Amino acid sequence: MKLSSFKWALVTGASSGIGKEFAIELAKRGINIVAVARNREKLQETINQCNQLGVQTIEYLADLSCPENVKKMVEDLSDLKIDLLVNNAGFGLYGEFIKLELDELEKMIELNIKALTALCHFFAKKMVEKQKGGIINVASIAGHLSVPYFNVYSATKAYVYNLSISLWAELRKYKVHVMCVSPGPTDTMFFERAFKGQNFQKFRKMMKPNEVVVKALKAFEKNKVVYIPGITNKFVANFIAKLLPHKLMAKFLTTS
To answer: Is the pTM of this model over 0.90?
Structure first.
């Protein structure tokens, strides 16, 4: 599906990292941008960069972990002809499950699962009516594994992975293409937030967010259903995760 056929894209989590790069790269391709995030200052930086590329932009400030904000955003944007949805907003938490705060875990589920589902549901209906559209859901290779200490996060991304494949199968007859992007370790602020002040060692090799996005958009135009950027990430998700028994994989990840 050619990106040049789209007029308006909505990108969540657009203030930094992968979401910001999605907004900018889509703007480079002449697509108007609705950029959604909760950090006003950083979101304005994204908007400014998109404006410099000559497209129309809408800045929408919202914390999508609050269901009321998701509902309000959908209502506010209902008249806009958005034909490409990029569900990127999300976060992870690292720690032993019983020691993590339940309200933080519930907030993660609200954002990573419920907000994404609501936006897919609303905009997919609009796209089906027009017989045209695209949805890119950002998951993680953690969603292809069972990752101890990233317990709930990996579970939420498994949901995104499975939902995306199901939606692809259901919506393709309406000329709506759905793709799941499952990045591996990426050079963003994800780990700083996930570890919340705990000491951690960054991965030696992390992909840059722009590299992830550029490759993902090429995959989308080739009608890929699931795209995992990076050779090592592909190997882990497609071979190691499928060949090793679940118990052995979980033990390996616990000690690595």
So the answer is: yes
